[in-house]
């Protein structure tokens, strides 16, 4: 499953948000893996198309796509030098696909700010500086690793060393790795480099409930900052989310309406994470179960099948696929097939968002 790490300074609302998100996930129906560890929560990705498919296919089970949220507590100034939970914290970040950076954009005299005042841009810089310092360390180690090979005249080692030098200069300027423009070859090196600041970031500006849905002057600054570094941003209220999960599901819509918001923060975050990561969904539907699967835009049929099982990818023959829109309109697989809406696709087929797929494979 996709793993998203929640980071931020202490007392910005991370745990409040994390608990609300994982409670919301725990309450979703037919949930396969709820709790993994105390700080890891799995949430179902809300998708009305999946419910419709399950209804049409008469499925016994409905299995939504899932995202794992990991609460990564303990980042403080000096973490890269071992302050706070220091290195342990940074190790956890290495393992996630994307980062949700919670930024405090609410005033509350009862909630102490570690820096003494509320200033989202300063907070963002504090966290980013620690991550950049850690990345500089990683880049230096990389240099040492390739140095010998460069001396023997190894061309690919030379290319890597040049790239690392460019990255080092960039990081030293206080810029995150994800804003460095890279060639295709460098992109491959970067992917293998495990740099923390190369990961996609979504800023979650945590505002007071009455600043929803548009946010406030502080969250606007966060959004502007996000734009300058190719990151995403959303406005959430951790407190509102915490109240929301306390309610019975049937009372939630009314509560949200009263707060002036259309949907809960979970749906907002999930959608933003999908957009940020370029993710799409395909479906499988049958009497046993209907299920949503997450892939990256541009994934071809065999690799999409591989998300279900590696055997599906290895033995891939063909994929039968119906666009969701056609399935929805014609109301069954057989009707879609008769109407010529079920296509048979080969290895080069690029899966589209909403494809309802059936894989043929050798075992
Ligand atoms: P963490 O250290 O980042 O995990 O922060 P917590 O989630 O533990 O929150 C720290 C304190 O801030 C708690 O007392 C929360 O109740 C409070 N808090 C969190 N979000 C909000 C918010 O949106 N508004 C206000 N007023 N308090 C909040």
Automatic annotation (TrEMBL):
Domain OBG-type G: 2-256
Binding site for ATP: 11-16
Cofactors required: Mg(2+)
Taxonomic superkingdom: Bacteria
InterPro entries: ATPase_YchF/OLA1, Beta-grasp_dom_sf, G_OBG, GTP-bd, P-loop_NTPase, TGS, TGS-like, TGS-like_dom_sf
Record keyword Oxidoreductase present: no
Gene Ontology terms, MF aspect: ATP binding; ATP hydrolysis activity; GTP binding; metal ion binding; ribosomal large subunit binding
CDD domains linked: TGS_YchF_OLA1, YchF
Aminoacyl-tRNA synthetase listed as a keyword: no
UniProtKB keywords: ATP-binding, Magnesium, Metal-binding, Nucleotide-binding
Family matches, as Pfam families: MMR_HSR1, YchF-GTPase_C
Domain annotation TGS: ranges: 278-361
Gene Ontology CC entries for this record: cytoplasm
Role noted for this protein: ATPase that binds to both the 70S ribosome and the 50S ribosomal subunit in a nucleotide-independent manner.
Entry similarity comment: Belongs to the TRAFAC class OBG-HflX-like GTPase superfamily. OBG GTPase family. YchF/OLA1 subfamily.
Protein name as it appears in the record: Ribosome-binding ATPase YchF
Origin species: Rubricoccus marinus
């Amino acid at each position: 499953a996709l793993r998203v790490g929640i980071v931020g300074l202490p007392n910005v609302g991370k745990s409040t948000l994390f608990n609300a998100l994982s409670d919301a996930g725990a309450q979703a129906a037919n949930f396969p893996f709820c709790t993994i560890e105390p700080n890891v929560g799995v949430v179902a990705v809300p998708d009305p198309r999946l419910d419709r498919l399950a209804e049409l296919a008469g499925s016994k089970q409905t299995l939504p796509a899932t995202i794992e949220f990991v609460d990564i507590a303990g980042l403080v100034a000096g973490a890269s030098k071992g302050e706070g939970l220091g290195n342990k914290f940074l190790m956890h970040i290495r393992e996630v696909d994307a980062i949700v950076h919670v930024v405090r954009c609410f005033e509350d005299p009862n909630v102490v700010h570690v820096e003494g005042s509320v200033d989202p841009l300063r907070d963002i810089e504090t966290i980013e500086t620690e991550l950049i310092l850690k990345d500089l360390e990683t880049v230096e180690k990389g240099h040492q690793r390739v140095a010998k090979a460069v001396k023997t005249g190894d061309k690919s080692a030379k290319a890597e060393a040049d790239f690392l030098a460019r990255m080092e200069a960039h990081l030293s300027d206080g810029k995150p790795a994800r804003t460095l423009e890279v060639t295709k070859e460098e992109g491959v090196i970067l992917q293998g480099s495990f740099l923390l600041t190369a990961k996609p970031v979504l800023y979650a500006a945590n505002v007071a409930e009455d600043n929803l849905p548009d946010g406030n002057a502080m969250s606007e600054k966060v959004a502007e900052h996000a734009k300058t570094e190719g990151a995403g941003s959303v406005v959430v209220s951790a407190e509102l989310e915490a109240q929301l999960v306390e309610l019975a599901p049937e009372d939630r819509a009314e509560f949200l309406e009263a707060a002036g918001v259309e949907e809960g923060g979970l749906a907002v975050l999930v959608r933003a994470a999908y957009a940020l990561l370029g993710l799409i969904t395909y479906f499988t539907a049958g009497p046993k179960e209907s299920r949503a699967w997450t892939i990256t835009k541009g994934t071809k049929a065999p690799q999409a099948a591989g998300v279900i099982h590696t055997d599906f990818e290895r033995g891939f023959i063909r994929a039968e696929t119906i666009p969701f829109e056609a399935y929805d309109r014609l109301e069954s697989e057989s009707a879609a097939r008769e109407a010529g809406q079920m296509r048979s696709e080969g290895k080069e087929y690029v899966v589209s968002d909403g494809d309802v797929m059936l894989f043929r494979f050798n075992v």
